[in-house]
# Entry
Amino acid sequence: MNAPPVSHVRGQVRIIEAIATTIIVLILAALLPIIFNSPTTTLRSQVQTNTEWYAYDVLLTAINNPQFTYYVQHNNWSAIRSLLNTIVGPQYDWYIAVVPYRKVVSIVSVMNYGNYVLIPLSIIPKVYYAPPLGMPIFMTSMSVSMLSLNVYTINSILGGKYSINITMPLSNVAFIQCKNLFSTNITQCIKSGNVRMINWWLESFDPRTGVAVVWLNATGNVYMLVSNGSIPYNVLSNSYCQYPYCYPIGGVSNIMYSSFNAPYNNEPQFINYYTQQALSQCYSSSNGMYGGSNYLVMIKTSGGTASGQSLNAPTTVSCTLPVSVNDNVGGINAYLIGQLLTSIPGTSFTLGFSNVEVELGVCFVNGTCINDYTGSVAGASFPISIGNVNAAETYGNTHEYLSLSVNGNTDITSLPSYYYVYLLTLSLSLDLAKCGIDVNASIYDLVTMSSVSLSYFYNLTSNDGLNCTQLMSLPNITSISLTMIPSNILLQQSTPQNPNNDVYYVYNATTIVYDLWVSPTPTTSYYIPITISYNFESIDKYNVVPQQYRERFFLSGFAPTASAYAIIQLPNGTYYLVYLGLMSVASG
# Structure
């Protein structure tokens, strides 16, 4: 079966969190809603609860209705009024406001430097705590962050002459920070030259939702630079960069190159990106692997013909590559962006870690540390061997399947549809609370934005006899770290010679790997300092719902006893703040 060509899926790329196709719902939990004491009311669900919760329940029910965004986009306000009359109990008067998000939101401390603006980002490293020590003893790499930024939202807030490019996505963006991570005055850092341009990489951009997934070689106080031109501004040379993305400081993935014709695909070594040079050892016609101009490798395998011949391709192709990731205490992840071009039922594609071991690092009160401690500690002998961990997608007669195998223990699930352009991930993360390793495999369809995941818990206590409580209470030890070390990363494709029912196939199964990389569990906690005006006068002023459809009863002196807020996104990428106010009209 042929997959749609890349041009047909132009820009159909992933968001770090799965979202619905036509709506993003983000409940703002700390929005300063107007809360009054009010008697509990028997709701439609017959659950006694506060009216504030009831307001959120009503709003969620309304905006999760697939018709809601359609009504907003087509200005069918009478239908929204009918919908709310159906959902809201008769004991309440209601008021609805739908406000363009840009009218009520602003980014705090956007700094204008003429040729560019700086938007502050605070990226918080993940810290793992291990009782009973009461101190952080695990921390992910301080140099790897993955951000999910909504470009449409940022552009709507910036306005004016500053706008993030979406034709060649983020091509006029750069990221900077002070060399001294404790410095808070970015202006002074720029003037004194104590600033650095951060290496970064655009994994994906989805033009439907505006979400860009960006990897940074940094944490802490970071500033996103948006220039007033088509290329970024270089604060070190006080001039515009020579190329988009300030290439090679920044750049894009191969899938972005293919989708947007942006030939600035770089190799971000800070996330251990596998290059064509690394994969060249696997290229050969006898091995069924070939290099390309805008992808890493094309893999071909063949099913048997009636005469037992193959079409110049082996039935199984595999390649192992070394894993070189330091400071992966806490977890290690593998990512692969691929495309299925043709397949034969029974063909499977595998992404895996080979011969995974858990090593122990300890530090003692005298200040000495041993990073690869091999003695028997707390009931276990180090290193602990976990074995092979594989994620595989298999093409079937009626479904495509995802499977997860951990040292021979396998789980499998079917996909809702065939995924032709996808992100396949495999992650290992330490869970000291349960004294084990959480293993997760997921596949994300870059076209439909649907996803499927499988998980497995490897118990270090029952499998290897490790006693985490005893380990952490050993005398004279000040800190402990567990590191997962796989010997290789595996790529493999297999096609059966004799499929079910003795049906022979006379064509090749072909898969393209666009991008492949491994990283420690990335830091993803960050925030952009944004303020939203919840002043009712402002909301009412910019409310696009006509007066005759804003309220149920149109009582004079509407004073809400409960309020709820949410943000919706229309299929065209426009964001709106939705406000719902409720006022009790029931007697007693």
